[in-house]
Every structure is written in C-alpha cells, then in structure tokens.
Amino acid sequence: MDRWCRSKDRARGDVLPIATVWDLSRAWYDNRLSDEYRGRSAAKVQEIFRGFGLTSAFWALDGDPDAPQK
Amino acid sequence: MGIVSDDDAPLWKVRGFVYRRFAEDARPPTVAQVAAELGLGADDAARVFRELDRRHAFFLDPGTLNIRIANPFSAVPTDFRVHANGRSYFANCAWDALGIPAALHANATIDAACAESGEPLPLTVAGGRVTPVTSFAHFLVPFRRWYDDMVFT
What we know:
The complex is a heterodimer.
Chain A: H1 2-8, E1 14-17, H2 18-29, H3 42-51
Chain B: H1 9-25, H2 31-38, H3 42-54, E1 59-60, E2 67-70, E3 73-74, E4 80-84, E5 87-91, H4 94-104, E6 108-111, E7 123-126, E8 129-131, E9 136-139
Antiparallel strand pairs in B: 1-2, 2-3, 3-5, 4-5, 4-6, 6-7, 7-8
C-alpha cells in the first residue's frame, strides 16, 4: 500500500479491515433502495462513523452538523 | 437531507424509480425512460435530474443528463464487479462493492484486485458475513473531500 501511495504521489489515507467495511456498508446502504430514503445530515453521518470508531480527522466533516450530506 | 417539502415529492419519486431500475437492470434508466415511465415532460425530467445531481442523490456525467454514479452502483465499468441476484453490477469502489449486497439485501460474489499488484482479491458475502476477513480497504480521500470529485474518490 505504501508503494502504491508513493507511485501515485499521494499520502496514505485510512485502512479498514474488510469486515468493518462490510458492517459500515450495511449501516450506510441498508435502506438506499427505499422510496423513503432522503439522504442524511452531517450529524447523522458523524453518528454512523462514531459507531464504528471512525473518529479521526480523516472521517471528520466540516461545517454545520445539520447541513445536508449524502 | 433536511426538511422535505411537498414540492420535493416529484424529486424523491424520480430518485426512488432510478434506484429501483438500477437495481433491477444493473444500469441506470435514461432521463427519457424516467419521463416516459413517470409521465413527466422532458424538460421537467431534466430539471429533476439536475436537482437530484445537485443534492448528491446521484451524479451525472458533467454536461449531460446521463447518470454516472448512483451509489453504490456505477453506470460505467470499474475494477469492482459484483454478482448478486443473477445480475452483474459495477461498483464505484471497495466500500460500494460491499454496498451493493447491503443495498440489495442479497448474497454476492465480488471481483476485486489489489490496486498495487493486481492480485485478484475476490470477496464473498453470504449469510450476513464477508469472507475472507484477511482483506482490507484503503480509503485514500478524507471523507470531507469525497464530494469534491466523486469519480476520483
């Protein structure tokens, strides 16, 4: 991974075990196909990330926690 | 995504239709198909597509009304092919490759490879679990920058 980052002249980001990515994907996408889905606020995004221990600056958002996100 | 007014109802109807069709067909509907299926005029459908793109409900190819990304689905071939429900999809990234079975509530097999070596790294989702658990995913771009360039992210 470090070789790849050097080859792209990019700083290393964050690395997550695939089981964590799966659990995060389920939390993120569980209701994505629902007609009721309306996106989520920055506050909700942060809540999801905190639930998976993603509290570093890499996963932080800028600005208003009630602003619309994804 | 904040407070939704009654005026937003057509937006979400289109959004829901787009996602259902993407899930069913493994490709997004065109704006013309959406207009025809939902009884919208061409201009109204185009306006709704642009507004949904602005709101990040999905992402259009710049300067067009073609859906490029409706996370977790990719409309273009990528390095992450996901087989689920008898269909084959393209995902935008490793997270989205797992996001497809998560969104479909289905088992899946995923064709992926190491970005550095090209070594195949297939994944399987079955019974609510992913295997092998020895794999990991590298997130290059900090989350707050993801929407600066969703294609790059």
